[in-house]
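Encode chain A's predicted structure.
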Amino acid sequence: MVRLMGILLLVATLAPVAAAPVAAAGARAPRLHPDRLFDSRALIASVSDDPVPSLTLEQNQGNPRLAMLYSLLLPGLGEYTLGYHGRATIFFVAEGAIWTSYAVFRSQGSHRKNLYREFAQVHAEAKKRDDDDYYRTIGNYIASDGPFSANEQVRREARALNPDNRAAQDQYFEDHAYTGDDAWRWESAELLDRYTDMRDSSISAYHHSEFSIGFMVASRLISVVDTGLLAARRKREAKPETGFHWGIEAEPTGAHLTVSRTF
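Encoded structure for chain A:
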């Protein structure tokens, strides 16, 4: 009698659970996608606080060689590819500053060049032309002809090259002398000194732009090396350690020595 009452009580308890699918038999059951029937990743994510990674560790790290190539093209891009965004930002800022300095120095050099050429045209009656050697020469002599002039230097060169041939000396002078549109004469030595300073300032700006190019090359080499070192360090950190490990655990009942080996 007691056993019969237990069975009835169990049936009464399970009856509502069994009746639910029977009541819904008339309705169309929703179809489940086959891929979701045994979605282990979703099951793990539902019971774990840690997100399930969508990429493997190597995929997240990227290709080290490709990252180094990126750094060669643009410093910092390789670091960014490997996930080191802070280091990449430093290289990006430095690259922008280098390019800005290059553009500024080139602009200054060009502007100052136009200034000293116009200055020579006004104060030395020199014809404006695109010839750096000509403007260098007019900065070394007060005039093209006369005592201590550029033509005097040409005559000395003619005599040195052709000491026993007067005809060759005359021909050399005719080919290299500053006459006609090439002639000039500075109004004063002070103006000549000022012209020299203006020209030196232009040349200095161009030299600084060349230094910027050197910094561009150096920045790329540093970024390539830095990317390679970061990739190597990431690889070492991702590689599991192998070997024996031991430790001692103290408990109220005594101490236990634990020895393990990782492969």
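Residues 1-60 have pLDDT under 50 and may be disordered.
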